[in-house]
Amino acid sequence: MKQGERSLREWFRNLTAGTGPGLFGARCRKVTLGIPLALCILGVLFGLDIMLGSVNIPLDSFLAILTGGEVKETWSTIFWDWRLPKAITAAFAGAALSLSGLLMQTFFRNPLADPYILGISSGASVGVALVIMSAGLCGLGAIFAGLGLLADVSISVAAMLGSLAVLLLILFISAKIKSNITILVIGIMVSYISGAVVTILMQFANEASVHRYAFWTFGSFSSITWNQLPILVFFLAAGFGVSFLLAKSLNALLLGEQYAVSMGMNYKAVRTAILVSTALMTGVVTAFCGPIGFIGIAVPHLCRGLFVTADHQILVPASVIIGGIIALATDIISHLPGTDIVLPLNAITALFGAPVVIWVIVRGTRFGRGVTI
């Protein structure tokens, strides 16, 4: 028994170091070329997301704007006031959602877990619904107006408050209950309760309010302003930092809670950090961009397939980069360059994400060591 435990410890040290046999080994060498190539693709798509749209900005004018040259005032305004904050938002939001999905899939050891599994986005939806649709019910929507907040700001504030309320509930429950499955079930039940509240509010709202709420649920990277962008970047960057620090602990969780604890991991602290960082990133993205689906569930699997590894020291930065790539690509497609048509962002992300989820189910993809669909 001691010999078996010693062997397991040696394998775990190799696992977290990214060397030796097991899940990682020589396969991690793909990172040498994969990460720089992904960064190049991210930069190209970032530029294309700024250049392409209903009004296309030529490459020479794009470069002139960057270097301070003279260009049409219209193009300069579109660049600075509209498309640059949109592209930054898309890159950060896509990275946050994919990273949150990776954390949830590892934490619950479930390959079909996504960032919204804790019910965080449902809490945000209730907050937004209260602001948009509650005026006809009890006048709650006037509270934010009474505080002097603008319409778009009030929606973001309400979404963040709703997400915070669910986060506090999850943290309270996690402090009392050790079972991750119980937390998962409670998160799903919170989603059902939130959906019921929103449905009731719809029955009392006018048509314009329902339409506005429906438009918010489509998801968009375009509604954020320069004043709001620092808030988004600050909170998401904090979530990224925590996730990078958790990489080795996430590797340990692949072996199961008991083995991770036996190897010296403070499981309670790690669990709290995972829940808080996921809720923080998911809640902020939902507040400013709406509930954007499928990126969080699909990108982690895409990263595992591209880099052929389960090492979170690789998957965490890979998820950040690939998530930004997918978000920028879907944003470009949704705006149908050269036309005035804008497709719902969630429709485009579903067209990308759903085939990946189907592929995971059909192939029975192994998650880490032993979790199979």
CATH superfamily name of the largest domain? ABC transporter involved in vitamin B12 uptake, BtuC
Please give the domain count: 2
Estimate percent helicity: over 70%
Calculate Rg over CA atoms.
22 Å
Measure the end-to-end span: 31 Å
DSSP strand tally: 2
- Bulk shape: globular
CATH class of the largest domain reads Mainly Alpha
The succession of helices and strands, N to C, reads: HHHHHHHHHHHHHHHHEE
How would you characterize the overall build of this protein?
The chain is an all-alpha fold and 373 residues long. It folds into two domains: 30-114 and 220-256 and 295-372, ABC transporter involved in vitamin B12 uptake, BtuC (Orthogonal Bundle), CATH 1.10.3470; 116-218, no CATH class. The chain has 16 helices and two strands. The chain has a two-stranded antiparallel ribbon with strand order 1-2. It is globular and about 65 Å long. The model is unreliable at 1-5, 14-26, 138-150 and 365-373 (pLDDT under 50).
Provide the descriptors you would attach to this structure in a database record:
ABC transporter involved in vitamin B12 uptake, BtuC, 2 domains, 2 strands, 373 residues, disordered C terminus, mainly alpha, disordered N terminus, two-stranded antiparallel ribbon
Task: Summarize it.
Helices cover 73% and strands 1% of the residues. The protein is built from 16 helices and two strands. It has a two-stranded antiparallel ribbon.
Blueprint (SSEs and pairs):
Layout: H1 2-17, H2 30-51, H3 59-67, H4 73-107, H5 120-133, H6 142-146, H7 151-176, H8 180-204, H9 207-217, H10 229-245, H11 247-253, H12 257-262, H13 267-289, H14 295-307, H15 312-334, H16 345-363, E1 366-367, E2 371-372
